[in-house]
């Protein structure tokens, strides 16, 4: 990302000039020098010459993080090999998760998704005898950092709260999440890694 001069050094030209074949048009993020961090661009901030654009690698779409709520890959069969039902259809199974009703859930085509915060992505099946099943999607080693982390209050619905309060409003101590007594539940730390 340096200036390249001619042999005399009198004329300085930009090393990465746009051509019809190299894609360096407009101000889009590109990677003309095969930087290992991926696409980057020169910025309009005089104090920041260039910066990576933070575009996800395509292979990241084949993995899921946490319980797969952000998974947007193209797996369209369940663990048993059954084809998934399209999210915009109500046959063979009627369901509440229509793409128009939940536009932020990525309910595209018949791909496995996790619109209800289940333990991992799933889909309604095309088999009238099996309503829904989980999908087999590889878990990424990378753990995303929680968004909107707070410790003394909560934002939104409290998904990012990481404080240490462990009693209810009436003073009852909270049960450990990894315990099943006195109350059995499915929100265990090993199934909901990022919660």
UniProtKB/TrEMBL annotation:
One of its GO terms (cellular component) is extracellular space. Keywords: Disulfide bond, Kringle, Repeat, Signal. It holds the Pfam family Kringle. GO terms for molecular function: endopeptidase activity; signaling receptor binding. PROSITE patterns: KRINGLE_1, KRINGLE_2. Gene3D superfamilies: Plasminogen Kringle 4. CDD domains: KR. Residues 1-58, 62-140, 152-195 form the Kringle domain. Disulfide bonds join 84-123, 112-135. This is Kringle domain-containing protein. It comes from Otus sunia.
